[in-house]
Amino acid sequence: MENNLPTNTSINLFESYRKISQNKYFDLPERNIALKKHYTNGNYDKVSKLRVEVGDDLKECKKLWDIFKKEESVFDLWKFRYPFHKYYLCKPYFLTIYIDSDPVGLLPLSYDPTVNGYRWFGTSWPEDNKFFVKDPIFVPLLMYLAPYPVALYAIEADEKNKLPDFTPLEIDDSKYILDLTRHLSFADYLNTLKKKKRYNFKRDIKKFKSLQTITEINNSSRFDEMIVIGKERFKIKGDISEWEENPQSIEMSRELMLDNPDYITRTVSAIIGNELAGSDMISIYKGKYYCLGGAYNTKSFSGIGNYMNYLEIEDALNMGCKVIDFLQIDYGWKHKWFTEVPLYKYERL
């Protein structure tokens, strides 16, 4: 078992580089040697006066987050991540590197009791994760100091270049997107598909239109019905939904859909004879349309998945969005329709 830096701790890292091998928190010889070589090969001046602190005060953690956040993705927003942290009863573990009083690197983590380990702040669910540093030279040190056990998922591909060979990232499940700047309409998108896929998509759209399917936007009264359908669908597949396994995630999902000044929340639902056929939770931020999840009654309404994709592509175009982000994990179908985007992970378990 590795020694973790306790919270509310501040230590000087290097009075000289020799302290790397003397500090009790650096107890893995192979990584120790590689790290020492990395920072004594022309980089020592940048790290010789470093200090590291670990904090768990939520207000102070937010201040640090605000210093480093990129505001490129909805997952960069504290208000979006916080419900994940809150409902999974996580404890912050913000590991910060300073030069004097200036924070130059931040590893924003939480201890997640549902997995008995450390994850990004916001648990394993948020995507588009980045290393918070003012200079990439500090990334390997942050990873070296990371607590154990730790698993950091859904790291953006560009971040891979910030890590040296002795701290490699592994391939994670990809995410899938649709670039709407290439399509002026849903018909434009259909024309990019091969003949059989195009036929199947059009067939399902025609089917649900013939059933006089009603589209509802932002009808919060359908939320509980969506949860029931989601649980049932997983049971049919012989699996268990997150809403079933961790009931606190139901209220987390509900909070994510509350009106928010920082991003747009939206639900898209398909109703047939007053019965919910499918419903998805959506967030919109800086021209990106995020399909966060939902539930489809595929038992009663075969093909509802294609119809919901149609509704959401149309909705995203009407909202002036440039990209639809269908998020991580293929589930056996996303690769058939959308563009794959690689993501990476770091694990020390």
UniProtKB/TrEMBL annotation:
UniProt domain BioF2-like acetyltransferase: residue ranges: 195-334
InterPro entries: Acyl_CoA_acyltransferase (IPR016181), BioF2-like_GNAT_dom (IPR038740)
Domain of life: Bacteria
Pfam families: Acetyltransf_6
Protein's name according to its UniProt entry: BioF2-like acetyltransferase domain-containing protein
Organism: Candidatus Woesebacteria bacterium GW2011_GWB1_38_8
